[in-house]
Amino acid sequence: TGIKDIFRSLGVQRVVVGGQSMNPSTADILAAVEAVPSDQVVVLPNNSNIIAVAEQ
Q: pTM of the full predicted structure?
């Protein structure tokens, strides 16, 4: 909820949920990207621990 609901209201189709101690893997992010029916996808990592994973 919260930011996820705001993103959804703006048309975001996938949100990969994580947190301080449950960082998503590269596979988690890639699966979300591949599940979106679009030629263009924006990834917004919101934690410094996730930036390296998202860049892969």
A: 0.78
Top-confidence residue, 37 or 17: 37
Measured N-to-C along each axis, helices 48-55 and 26-35 cross at an angle, to the nearest 10 degrees, of 60
Local structure of residue 43 (DSSP, 8 states): -
User: Dihedrals φ, ψ of 3, to 5°?
Assistant: -65, -35
> What are the boundaries of each domain within the chain?
3-55
CB contact burial 17-36 (16+ within 10 A = b; e otherwise): ebeeeeebeeeebbebeeee
